[in-house]
Design goal:
The protein contains five helices and 14 strands. The protein has 204 residues and is α/β, with parallel strands linked by helices. A five-stranded parallel beta sheet has the order 1-3-6-9-12. Strands 5-8-11-13-14 form a five-stranded mixed beta sheet, with no helix packed on it.
């Protein structure tokens, strides 16, 4: 996650990722629909608005907490104020999501009823979700877990250990599939053929 990314840069990234989800470009009409009629984008935008108003002297922190509270009520989802969220957050169904003080990378997809949080208040650190990770519906990422870049967490999976880059976690508790299927196919295809093929006896 880019620590120097401004809230306005994040909003632009958010619009791009929602446009990619619809396989279209960011137009004026698309942008207007996102702000007025798209709950998923509105949920993400409310987070960006919190990041903007908190900079207002004296009353910024109070305004942010009010916005956070209103967002929790509207969407029945909670994104902790202490969380660090990169640009391009994609939440097409922003309901039942609970995210603690985690670090969320850029262009991350989070579906409905996902939980990301600590297993104990005494935990030394929070979860880290790498860039372009995808967490599908009903999944739980519990503890000081790191999800690598381009990783995937299957629906209703419970992740209790780190997931490497480009890996998939599925099941309860989650099993780690180290390589994506397409990567494995590419590696097999790249292997050289033997110089000579074994001779098969001919039927007489």
């Amino acid at each position: 996650m880019d620590a120097h990314e401004t809230p306005f840069q994040k909003i632009k990234a958010d619009l791009r990722i929602f446009a990619e989800g619809e396989k279209r470009g960011v137009t004026a009409g698309f942008t207007l629909r996102m702000f007025l009629l798209t709950p998923g984008f509105q949920f993400v935008f409310s987070r960006r608005l919190q990041e903007i108003v908190v900079r207002i002297p004296l009353i910024g922190r109070l305004l942010r907490r009010i916005l956070w509270w209103a967002t929790c009520l509207c969407f029945s989802s909670e994104l902790a104020m202490a969380a660090k969220v990169g640009g391009g957050l994609y939440t097409p169904h922003p309901f039942g999501i609970v995210i603690g003080a985690a670090e969320i990378g850029r262009n991350v997809t989070i579906l409905q009823n996902v939980t990301i949080g600590r297993t104990s208040p005494a935990s030394l650190r929070d979860a880290v979700v790498g860039d372009r990770a995808k967490i599908f519906a009903g999944a739980a990422v519990l503890g000081a877990i790191t999800l690598g870049r381009n990783s995937l967490v299957g629906a209703n999976s419970v992740v209790l250990k780190d997931v490497p880059d480009d890996a998939t976690a599925i099941g309860v508790p989650a099993r780690i599939l180290i390589k994506k299927a397409e990567q494995a196919v590419d590696e097999v295809a790249a292997q050289p053929l033997p110089a000579t093929l074994p001779q098969q006896p001919l039927d007489s």
